[in-house]
């Protein structure tokens, strides 16, 4: 079985010329980036949602909380949010889903914030389902986050027709929308042990996106050393995005390695206090190399991302050192020094 997956992965790479030809030139990508200014923001989900499904389903979509929390982001100088979508909500009612996306964009635009939307995600809980989502498990990081599309669909290309409709339909609807900064096609595709098995859907997602060819750049972020998925993402992304949860020196070293591609760089996930990834130390590195900076987490809420990935606190007490997030649900901040660093970064 392992050999079959390897052969399939190689075939994917050898037959990937069509979408590659439609990628932006480096010159066009850099011209676009020069117009964006200093990009700084967070991965956003309202504190009232445990996952992407709860954020976007009609009965739990929460514009009041979204408005309030994006207002807090605006108040500290943030101008971009990375936001996860989910294929099942589109499948259930695409018109309602697209309307809620538009409502969300109106709120974000009111706060002068552009959005980097994410289509698929290999992380956390498998077998996602519509309807009422689980309650948070006390003290457990992302206890209810949902993969998209999940293993059953990822491994069954007969079901990809609805995924193609989701990607193309969403991109077509917002293809010329200036409120959308860019499109992140697949978050950490090789995560959860998928490795080479993620390559066929990753390849197809780039093909679908580049058949639409929206006016905004398309990308997918490198996050580990999985060579085959990284090759697809580097070869077909208009701009280079990446994740780095390490200290400032490690971050700087990675930026230097990525500069060889000659394209704009945006770090779409960083800031893990336990692992020495801090605003005060990382933001100066981003500024030095003119790299966009999108940390994980804005408001501590149902996702429980103040707790570290591998250090649950089953009693649900507040950790002495938050792993992610900036604000409490009442709008107070975890660290004034961090807020000062963020504000200084965008001046």
TrEMBL record:
Gene Ontology terms, MF aspect: hydrolase activity
A Pfam family: Glyco_hydro_2_C
UniProt xrefs under InterPro entries: GH, Glyco_hydro_2_cat
Signal peptide: 1-21
Record keyword Zinc present: no
Protein origin, superkingdom: Bacteria
Record-given protein name: Glycoside hydrolase family 2 TIM barrel-domain containing protein
Organism ancestry: Bacteria, Pseudomonadati, Bacteroidota, Cytophagia, Cytophagales
